[in-house]
């Protein structure tokens, strides 16, 4: 009985780290309007604070997952906890945007280490018959961070400066590290010699970094500039190089054969698209509520809590239906639910009832939470691909978030620029109607992305039916 209690106590070390990272991600989004004013930077540059964190995770997630198989999950998890906490301290003390961005890069570096090993530690500690329950508890605690982020962020910003949204991470990180030192079991080094596809990692990481740099630089100086086109072309060259390398090394970073499975590939792409749409709200809503509607940061945070709260309620309910009707059918139904608030947001006005608005954005959370991406991906992955499929699920989720920030900001600025007849890359304080036009345009693009996701899931369903005959 003592050993059984010990493993449940150990679970909280990994779960609270997940809680802190999701809390940090969601709390920063609410703070972006305050950061633009305090740091005296335009809206598009303030969004880098969100983006660099996600980009670092995307670049390093697969690397640390592979390293953990050789070095050990706990060593990497604990190191990631320390680095994330140090990054939080840098962010908390940042006097300028550049130092804050450096702190967010350090945070992303640490977060990638713990995200890559979190599930592996649970699998290592828990026996098979308890893993499902452990994963569920881990997910619930992590989502509590996502839920509490907007409300806590709004409360903190209504009383204190934005520095405090990073300060709160520091004691949590220290406690998690010390707690883990006592609660985690001893772990032996798994490999005498480290082996890795370093060329694959280099081409992959540079391909991701240059892709996002080209997008954010394009927002700043214009997408037609030779520098932007050149960086984007460089990104494509590195992606081509990555595919070539992965086909010719004995132990690739990603086994590309997995993409020969059509249903699995379509599930990954649809997950990326849906997570991209989900991040539109994180980018646009704080400006709509705080700047356009002139609401307090506390009320903005409370309203935005409707999305993750609905998400965490919808996800387990959708899971129950998945067991009965399969993940593809449940996902398809929830994507149609997702379409309702997206259409509403393409036509939203300046004085819509806030209660009705909150109900509508809660439907975003229901649509996202009900989309059963993990059961679809893992369900279509053969046994020999379960490990790499799990890594790709996490990668495509984080890539979707990063791309979502890029698409949301790019379409928002383009929509505002169309209305203003000149390039806009900041909130137009003297012309709020320009912002509303940009918001409408952004959600039109989000709706079109949703249509593509629905078409992909329909295709998966069609393949399912054909295979069942």
From TrEMBL:
Q: What lineage, starting at the top, does this entry show? A: Bacteria, Bacillati, Bacillota, Bacilli, Lactobacillales
Instruction: Tell me if Electron transport is a UniProt keyword of this record.
Output: no
Name the UniProt key words of this record, in alphabetical order.
Membrane, Transmembrane, Transmembrane helix, Transport
Where does this polypeptide localize? Cell membrane
Q: What is this protein called?
A: Efflux pump antibiotic resistance protein
Organism expressing this protein natively? Companilactobacillus mindensis DSM 14500
Q: Which residues form a coiled coil?
A: none
For membrane topology, the record states:
Multi-pass membrane protein
The highest taxon in the source lineage is Bacteria
Give the principal location in a single coarse category.
Answer: membrane
The entry's cellular-component GO terms read: plasma membrane
Residues covered by the Major facilitator superfamily (MFS) profile domain: 10-464
The UniProt entry, under InterPro entries, shows: MFS (IPR011701), MFS_dom (IPR020846), MFS_trans_sf (IPR036259)
Give GO terms: molecular function aspect only: transmembrane transporter activity
Q: Name one Pfam family in it.
A: MFS_1
- Where is the chain membrane-spanning? 7-28, 48-64, 76-102, 108-128, 140-158, 164-184, 196-217, 223-245, 266-289, 295-318, 330-348, 354-371, 392-414, 434-460
